[in-house]
Amino acid sequence: MHLYIDSPNFTPIASLVGGMLIGLAASVLVIYRGKIAGISGIVAGLMETENIQQGHHLWRTLFLIGLIGSSFIYQFFAPLPEINISASKGTLILAGLLVGFGTRMGSGCTSGHGICGLSRLSPRSLIATVSFMFSGFIVCYLFLHAI
Questions:
Q1: What DSSP character marks residue 106?
Q2: What is the C-alpha to C-alpha distance for residues 33 and 102, in angstroms, rounded to an integer?
Q3: Residue 108, by phi and psi: left (phi above 0), alpha (psi -120 to 50) or beta?
Q4: Around Cβ 75, how many Cβ atoms within 10 Å?
């Protein structure tokens, strides 16, 4: 097995800054709103219509606008990476459904458990994060080497 660093695509400074911005956004959300920056929970909350607090939909909508809009802002500072999707539409739909099922079954997604849960030293989030990372490693290995 040969490990190497893909030098043209190795971006430690941009990755560090991006990680710090994610941490800052998650911290601001939990400090000022008492909410976890888990994307699946934020999107699911937009679908709630009964017994909701004032501003419930506003902060969730603004968070998602910022999440999506950040790509448009980023392109003013650096070129966006090329998008190359080789999977079929059916595969993408199945993958999306499986991810959605997994986030509901695991009571959260990678951002909720992996960033916010681990920072709170949550044992449940540690187990969830180890589980989805291990599953990702296995699937990646199978697709790249065994199939």
A1: T
A2: 26
A3: left
A4: 10
List pLDDT tens digits, range 92-136.
999 889 888 888 888 888 888 888 888 889 999 999 999 988 988
Please give the model's pTM, rounded to 2 decimal places. Answer: 0.74
Sign of the C-alpha dihedral computed for residues 49, 53, 59 and 64 taken in this order: negative
DSSP string, 7-73: GGG--HHHHHHHHHHHHHHHHHHHHHT-----HHHHHHHHT--SS--TTHHHHHHHHHHHHHHHHHH
At a CB cut-off of 8 Å and minimum separation 6, what does 37 contact? 25, 26, 29, 30, 63, 111, 112, 115, 116
| Domains of the chain by residue range | 7-146
CB 112 within 8 A of CB 41: yes
